[in-house]
Amino acid sequence: MTKINLALEWFLNPDHLPMIVGLQKGEYKKANIDLNIIVPKEHYDGFEELSKGSIDIHCNEPIHLFEHYFTGIKSLGCFFETRGGVMIRKTSIMKLINNEKIKITTPAANEITNKIGFEILKRYAKKEGFALDRKNVEFIETDFWHIQNMKNNHSFDGAWLCFYNFEGIEAEHENFENLFIDQNLSPYPNFSALEFITSSKILEEKSELMDKIIEDTIPRLKSEINSNKDKWLDLSHFLEELKVIKLSKENYNNIW
Q1: Which residues, in sequence order, are bridge partners of residue 103?
Q2: Which one of 53, 168, 252, 254 has the fewest beta carbons within 10 angstroms of its own beta carbon?
Q3: What is the reported pTM?
């Protein structure tokens, strides 16, 4: 039996159903695969471990595929995609429109994620005919419990890094009225998705095994998985425009 170490991007959750179901139903063992799922301490741990060769596969958002580029990184394909963006509580929508000071809860407040979060709001504002000042939007690092954070702390006007299948559904369940600003409302390329990522070294060593993993995953999601350099091209341009990360054309093409 061949062991495969797969590192997640965050805690185990429904976005990882293909791996969870495969383990519970013993499908990986039937394929002679001993799948070991690793829950990381930090969101980007998998990239470092992948570059060192200590894991075989990592799953993470495509935005980090560019941000943590290293020679030999390879995309196996996107296996999950949802709507994502910034959630604004209903009672704070006018504060946003009036360009008043607002506070946004987020699990990761840093220069890059804050810049992208504000860009989503700014593009939405422009589309709707109003303007925002960066100094009026404050991102505060908390955790992923967005709805509870906003319900327990009314100083939070919104939440950033929201997945609709989590926070959108939870807000509906909790009757928490909000404006969910995603790629349908703000003109930016969606990146709320998960990619299977490996390295050229692992791919060359275990290509037959990778094929089995992909073949097992496809029917579970009812979706084709393939490496598509066009899928995230707009996202790479978006990140370059924001001066977050700029890959050469050669490095970008080498990913796929």
Answers
A1: 138
A2: 53
A3: 0.79
